[in-house]
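Feature request, filed as a ticket because there's no other form

It would be nice if the structure record came with a short human-readable summary line next to the tokens. Right now we just get the raw output. Example of a typical job, pasted below so the devs can see what we mean:
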Amino acid sequence: MSVPDSPKILILGGTAEAAAIAEISFLRWGEGVLVITSLAGRTIAPSAIAGELRVGGFGGAAGMVNYLRKEEISAVVDATHPFATRISENARLACEATEVPLLVFDRPAWQRKDGDQWHMMESASRAAEALPEYGQRIFLTTGRGEISAFTSCTNIWFLVRLVDMPLEPLPLENAHVIAARGPFTVEAELALMERHKIDVLVCKASGGEMTRAKLVAARELGCPVLMISRPELSEGDRVSSVDAAVTRLSEILT
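Raw output as currently delivered:
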């Protein structure tokens, strides 16, 4: 595939790493390369991002194919959340169809440490089924998409943390909702969990630094963690650091 005189990079974003890749790319190439970050539009007020921003879906793999061709995209970076499997699969299919290079950001996974009480769950539904075995005051940090899996939980109290406050009440029997955006500190997470007498943390195996503090807090408090296992990554050229992503992009665009 030939690279246009003024290349365009499409970053599938919504993560801190995606924003960092956009910023470093913008600083490195300036107006020589157009850096476009695409967001799904699920967050009401996303943080500022360097370069150009587009918000909303593409209309599946076929819609992304049309976008890549129309905009003459030179490379795609999939730096979405590790659990955003649908957009990742659409990106893989679209890049295969258009022969546009796909770079997949493989966020480093969290590593278990002494004192951690992690219990890996294959799904949110399995975590919901297992909850009564571990506690009754739950810190739920799986995001909006997984909340419905916990609607059948009775005699359980949830502290639910979301990026934005929901527009409608959550479908949970007993829950308190807070809105906050990471990164979080260990001290703040400890204070939050102690104030609400949390005895179980439920989260996704997202990896990264933005939300690692809650795992440290759970370890210090002796709380078990029900962690939903990460799905398999989409196929593609993989990198596991922001610097490596920008270096690889430089090679692709040369």
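Something like this underneath would help us a lot:
Residues 81 and 198 are 26 Å apart (CA to CA).
The domain at 118-228 is CATH 3.40.50.720 (Rossmann fold).
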